[in-house]
Design goal:
Layout (H helix, E strand, L loop, with lengths): L1 H13 L10 H15 L5 H22 L4 E4 L4 E4 L5
Antiparallel strand pairs: 1-2
Helix pairs in contact: 1-2, 2-3
Organism: Glycine max (Soybean)
Protein name: Myb/SANT-like domain-containing protein
InterPro entries: Myb/SANT-like_dom (IPR024752)
C-alpha cells in the first residue's frame, strides 16, 4: 500500500496538486479513492493525510540517524547500516 500511495502522490504532484509545501485537498481525496478501490478498504482523505504525516516523522528520524558518524544508507538493501567499530 505504501508504494501505491507514493506513486499516487507523485502523480498528483505532477498534476500540480501540491502547492507551497502542502498538498491540495484533491490530492488526498484522489489518493484515498485509488487506495480504497485497489485494496478493497475504506479510506478517507484524512487517513492519507495522517499517513503522510507519519512518513515525515520517519524521514526526520532517518535523517537524524544518518547525520551521525558511523551511519550510512545502503541503497541496495534500502536500510541504514552501521560501521563496525574497531577497538
Amino acid at each position: 500500500m505504501e508504494c501505491v500511495l507514493a506513486d499516487v502522490l507523485r502523480d498528483q504532484r505532477n498534476l500540480g496538486n501540491k502547492g507551497d509545501g502542502n498538498w491540495k485537498a484533491v490530492a488526498y481525496s484522489t489518493a484515498a479513492q485509488i487506495l480504497s478501490k485497489r485494496f478493497g478498504v475504506h479510506l478517507m482523505a484524512d487517513n492519507v493525510k495522517n499517513r503522510f504525516k507519519l512518513w515525515r516523522t520517519w524521514y526526520g528520524i532517518v535523517s537524524d540517524i544518518l547525520s551521525q558518524s558511523g551511519f550510512d544508507w545502503d541503497s541496495t538493501k534500502y536500510m541504514i547500516t552501521v560501521e563496525n567499530e574497531i577497538a
